[in-house]
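Listing S7. Sequence submitted for prediction.
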Amino acid sequence: MPKLTRLLPVLGLCATTVALGAPAAHADGEPTAEDFASYAEEAFASSGLPGLAVTVTHGDEVLMAEGYGTDSRGEPITEHSPMRLASVTKSLSAYGVMKLVEQGEIDLDAPVAEQLPEFSMADPRAGEITPRQLLDQTSGLSDRSIDIADLEGAESLEDYVSRLEDDTLTSDPGAEWAYCNVNYNVAARLVEVVTGRSYDAYMKEEVFGALGMEETTLSAAESDPAEGRNELFGMWIERQEIGGILDHSASGGAVSTASDMGHWLVSQTGEGPVSQEGLDAMRTPGGGEDYGLGWGVNETGGGRALVSHSGNLFTSYAAHGVVPETGYGFAVMADSALLTDDTYTIMEGLIAVSEGRDPVLPEGDGAYQWALGGLTLLAAVLGAVGVVRSRTWAARRGSLWGAALRCAPLLVPVALMLGYRAVVTVLTNGRHVTWEQMTYFAIPLTVAVFAAGLAGLAVIAARVFGLVGRERRA
């Protein structure tokens, strides 16, 4: 999300890919299901991921829906294994709202407050926000001005919306684009008020049920997916996903399967309760950003229009996309979250196969894991050596001021450690980041940062004690 909460890409690092060994598209026109399956198998092996699910559709036909690897319970992943969709949920949620728009139940361009009287904020501009602006992320709602931690304690969507009363906007509605999960949860509450049903019930009956998505829910408790995983220096660690309002949420709570995603992608050809006109409206960018209603809008490597959305949680990643011109649809889901997200890279590879181009293979995050593991080990060794030699170092130093200046470089890793969370918050455009979150997919980076910071702190402390002892002896 946009590729949310992916730390290293936000810091400017990108996953590397390689084209060697990647299967080319079928030479005789349209690629076959076997072409897509062949690439998916190679991509899974190349990525180093422990588990993956892939779906490819063409028009109203599901070409493949397969699972690869095993989940954290040791069970084979199949086309029926429940996988978290993360922010891919937003596309499904926008579809649910659009259905009500076409039924005349929701006005996309009327103020939300007129349709949802309980919605109010400590900012008069909030009264101008429309459902369209919620869905295309131009409402002015932002993590920078909203108490996200408070919202995570909400027990219902009604409670969630009521907690916004003390918050403000960062811009006029419609003026700027800012990715914020709050937008979709406010829209979900609007759905509840308009339909008189819980958001879960509405989506289950009117969207998932209507599309034949019987294995899809907005609650992990109902679908019971296996726990996700994070990698630390080559070791896979089973982790429980961070909870809160995420469960049942319209912004990232959906759990689905490769089989059900086939039904979903087929619906994007107009074979569903939302008309082609409605689908086109959802794929129209607004607010000066390449983002429509629940879909990012860009191009394939072959120059065709592509609507897509990625999803990033702390223990799993997902991506899906549709190429309207060719009628192909793609979904990729991983039950692990690493320093890099290969689900979107794999989806791009599948798109390349559909266009007759050479697809790239993901390389995983092995290079980052090795580099950060090496940095952690180096910091530990240098810290230990510095502590052991601190007394000798103090004895050789001249004035205390000179010694202090020589210690100054050690303050850099210490400052980075102390300001780590704040730096990440700034680099993610004010997104709400907690220390707990930094111990999930970013754990190799977090360990390396703290190893360097603690090593620097230990050496400084040892040198100070050495200098104090020297002065006493003098």
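Caption to Listing S7: primary sequence and predicted structure tokens for the chain studied. The chain has a mean pLDDT of 90. The CA atoms of residues 151 and 279 lie 31 Å apart.
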